[in-house]
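Support request from a user on the community tier.

User writes: "When I paste my structure tokens into the form, the page sometimes reloads and wipes my input. The last time it worked, I copied everything first. Here is what I submitted, just in case something in the input itself triggers the reload:"
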């Protein structure tokens, strides 16, 4: 008997972890997850977008428009930053980060400062925004590679049913 041939690639696996992490986000509009991996394909950390510890997601705003003070934007920690902070202080030098959405400029700064050397993403839907143009400029200057992931499939099914295990 030969080994199974339809297993997922490392990129698909780690992006899958990032996407699964996004399901923890309580943001009603945008759910993003991130997964940081070292050079030996070991998961260093995961994160998703949400409020900082101690800031109740029932008491802080989720709005996207209006007075900036009353929107989510000044409060929410993005998935990339959360993954970096959740790492527990270990070195991230030379790691890769998998994230569904291309990082904003604030996350790009944290990625660069933490020593992460590659960003793998699914969507760059804000490509022309100043934030994302700044991110690419900083990544290029700091030698951080970035690439859109090439998936061999459009979806994976995850079942929690006992009979499917």
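"...and here is what came back when it finally went through:"
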């Amino acid at each position: 008997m030969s080994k199974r041939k339809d297993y997922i690639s490392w990129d698909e696996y780690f992006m899958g972890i990032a996407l699964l992490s996004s399901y923890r986000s309580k943001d009603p509009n945008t759910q993003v997850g991130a997964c940081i991996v070292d050079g030996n394909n070991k998961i260093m950390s995961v994160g998703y977008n949400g409020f900082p510890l101690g800031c109740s997601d029932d008491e802080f705003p989720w709005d996207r428009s209006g007075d900036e003070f009353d929107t989510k934007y000044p409060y929410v920690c993005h998935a990339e930053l959360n993954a970096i902070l959740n790492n527990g202080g270990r070195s991230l030098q030379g790691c890769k980060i998998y994230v569904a959405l291309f990082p904003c400029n604030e996350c790009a700064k944290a990625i660069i400062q933490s020593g992460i050397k590659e960003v793998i993403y699914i969507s760059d839907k804000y490509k022309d925004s100043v934030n994302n143009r700044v991110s690419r400029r900083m990544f290029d200057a700091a030698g951080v590679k970035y690439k859109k992931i090439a998936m061999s499939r459009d979806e994976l099914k995850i079942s929690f049913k006992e009979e499917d295990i």
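Agent notes: The reload is a front-end session timeout and is unrelated to the input. The beta strands are 33-37, 43-48, 96-101, 118-123, 145-148. The first strand starts at residue 33 and ends at 37. Escalated to web team.
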